[in-house]
Amino acid sequence: MLWLLLTGLGGTAASLAVPLVVQRVVDGPVARGDAYGLLLLGALALLFGVVEALLIFIRRWTHAAAAVGLEAAIRDDLYAHLQRLPVSFHDRWQSGQLLSRATSDLGVIRRFLSFGLIYLVVNTITYVTVIAMLLRLYWPLGLVVAASAVPLFVFARQFARGYLWASRALQEQQGDVATLVEETAVGLRTIRSYGRSRFMAGRFADEIGELRDIAIDKAGLLSRASAKFDLVPNLTLAVVLVVGSIAVAGGELTIGRLVAFASLQLLLIWPVESLGWIIANGQESMTAADRVFEVMDTRPAVTDTPRARTVEPGPGRVVFDDVHFSYPGTTQQVLRGVDLEVRPGETMAIVGVTGSGKTSLVSLVPRLYDATAGRITLDGTDLRDIRLDCLRGLVGVAFEEPVLFSMSVRENITLGAPGATDAQIADALAVAQAGYVYELPWGLDTRIGEQGLSLSGGQRQRLALARAVLARPHVLVLDDPLSALDVHTEALVDDALARVLKGTTALLVVHRPSTIALADRVALLADGRIAAVGTHSELLATVPTYRAVLAAETTPAHGS
Ligand SMILES: Nc1ncnc2c1ncn2[C@@H]1O[C@H](COP(=O)(O)OP(=O)(O)OP(=O)(O)O)[C@@H](O)[C@H]1O
């Protein structure tokens, strides 16, 4: 950046020197008919020209590395920050808006840092220097040129205000379009199967149309402002030429001085003309920076407390102690005083009607969210007192919606256990009944498509289950991980899973009675509290609500 600035200033100084040489050429060698003097001054002008060209070359050469380097560094910070932000942040934000901030907004900022900002500094210094030189050459005309800054200032202010609004609108709209593209790509099957392709295309056309309209309005603002900016120096030049010629005729000014004056003034045309573009670029990057900082300034809500420490794996007792929970930014109390003890090595099934808060309850264990009141302990230590990376190493999770990344099968499975051997992977795959991966074209090294879309729902769930099991977690959280499996495969997985669950403390959100059989005990969640805890048969015999919940969950699952 320093190189950019120094070469920018050096180049401008060289170009400003040329008119002063011209003045001396006209008033000296040309007036006297001195050929040798002309050659000398001509060579000097050439030297300045060469120096300017060299500096421009260095500036262009260094600019890419500086600007692209800055952009990459900011993008890196933004991505790292997004990883630290809690799940609740991502619940609230459309991914397209994040995408446009990480891509197009950073591009706008880069353009400003590499061009706009440099030209703003260089052009301002050029402007002030030229005005000072003009005042020195012939002050009455110098004052005329200086006064032309007043209308420029007024136009610039008007333009800046209008443009700020338009830039923000354009960037928001770009985010909305990115969101729509992302949603369409992810939901393509649903859109196709409902025959809504044309409807979605129409919606996209509307959004794109709005983007186009804002962009055209914005371009209109810039072109109107540029025309005004253009007019001012050209009108001033006309005044200078007329008044200057009269002054030369009256003997107050030499021709050489007038030529130098006019040449210097021509050097002002570019800084003034570029003003519109620089302001536009500045306003765009200001709104882009605002948008990036909306993300950067969001403090991660789930973080390590100063007391947080690394703990050694203990027996694995998980205790919920009067746990209350509402999602950030909402008033609805999802959990209202949950008391539950999961004993070491025990598998506890969580059962409740749809929307009763089962997923919310188990999300608190790996601290995807923090309880709003009460506490959860692991072997007697409050979860908030365990370092996050340690806690997440101890707790393995598989959710109903399995997310697979655009990587090989092996990389997907070993996400939580990067050093796992092939034998360990084979064991995990066997538990999850996911042996089908060996039949894929490149076996474990097969790259699976975006979100594993080339696999079936059941296949994806089994991979996600293998991933959770492979990490040999101390506490396993399984949120209905078998919902997409057919009855036969589920039975096979259940058998294998039963062996894994034997030695592990587990929380299992389940709907189907067949999976409940895996659990040692069952907790019934109702009205944000644990209404009953016991073995499946105890609850069946003594708790009518339990029977009702299971009946309600079983009916659609078995399609009868
Ligand atoms: N990210 C979120 N932000 C705000 N509210 C949420 C969020 N996720 C869930 N909720 C609300 O919290 C309540 C409990 O949802 P949760 O997903 O925990 O229920 P569940 O028992 O797991 O349901 P299901 O059996 O259908 O999976 C619901 O009323 C839901 O609307």
Automatic annotation (TrEMBL):
Q: Ribosomal protein: present as a keyword of the record?
A: no
> Which PROSITE patterns does this one have?
ABC_TM1F (PS50929), ABC_TRANSPORTER_1 (PS00211), ABC_TRANSPORTER_2 (PS50893)
Q: Which domain of life is it from?
A: Bacteria
Localized where? Cell membrane
Ranges for domain ABC transmembrane type-1 come to 2-284
GO cellular component assignments: plasma membrane
Which regions span the lipid bilayer?
36-58, 112-135, 141-160, 231-249
Q: Which residues form the ABC transporter domain?
A: 318-552
What Pfam families would the database entry show?
ABC_membrane (PF00664), ABC_tran (PF00005)
What UniProt keywords are attached to this protein's entry? ATP-binding, Cell membrane, Membrane, Nucleotide-binding, Transmembrane, Transmembrane helix, Transport
Supply the InterPro entries for this chain. Answer: AAA+_ATPase, ABC1_TM_dom, ABC1_TM_sf, ABC_transporter-like_ATP-bd, ABC_transporter-like_CS, P-loop_NTPase, Type_1_exporter
**What membrane topology does the annotation report for this chain?**
Multi-pass membrane protein
Listed CDD domains: ABC_6TM_Rv0194_D1_like
GO terms assigned for molecular function: ABC-type oligopeptide transporter activity; ATP binding; ATP hydrolysis activity
Name of this chain's protein = ATP-binding cassette subfamily B protein
What is the organism field in this record? Catenuloplanes niger
